[in-house]
Amino acid sequence: MTLAKTGLGNVTSIAASANADVYTAAGGKKAYIRALLIHNTGTSSSQDVNIYFVPNGSSAATANEIGNMTLTAKDTAFFELAYPLTMTTNGDAINVANGSGNVTNVLVLGDVES
């Protein structure tokens, strides 16, 4: 197994009360998700976010929620996994749902097979 060492994409900005896939497996290559870097852009209030591993053909739901956190104003946090989450099926996704209030920025950290 050779890793591409190119990262998994750019920052995804998620509007208040919205959700977005921050990474989707593609190209028939295994992806290894090590962590999410999550930033609350708001200057005066906390922000709740929920994190989901969504299998291909499914949608974000309690059954596939893998974490949640509350970030204080202008806070940045890591959602780190003890062992990388391996994504092997095209269309599997990491989805982040943002609560009401502020924009949240998310960067997925990991690698993909070359």
Instruction: Spell the H/E element sequence.
Output: EEEEEEEE
Mean pLDDT: 93
When the domains are counted, the total is 1
Give the biggest beta sheet: 4 strands, antiparallel
Tell me the number of strands.
8
For this structure, what is the CATH class?
Mainly Beta
Q: Taking strands numbered 1, 2, ... along the chain, how are they ordered across the largest sheet?
A: 1-8-3-6
CA-CA gap between termini: 8 Å
User: Would you tell me which CATH topology applies?
Assistant: Jelly Rolls
CATH architecture classification name: Sandwich
How much of the sequence lies in strands comes to: over 45%
Question: Which consecutive residue ranges, at least 5 long each, have pLDDT under 50?
Answer: none
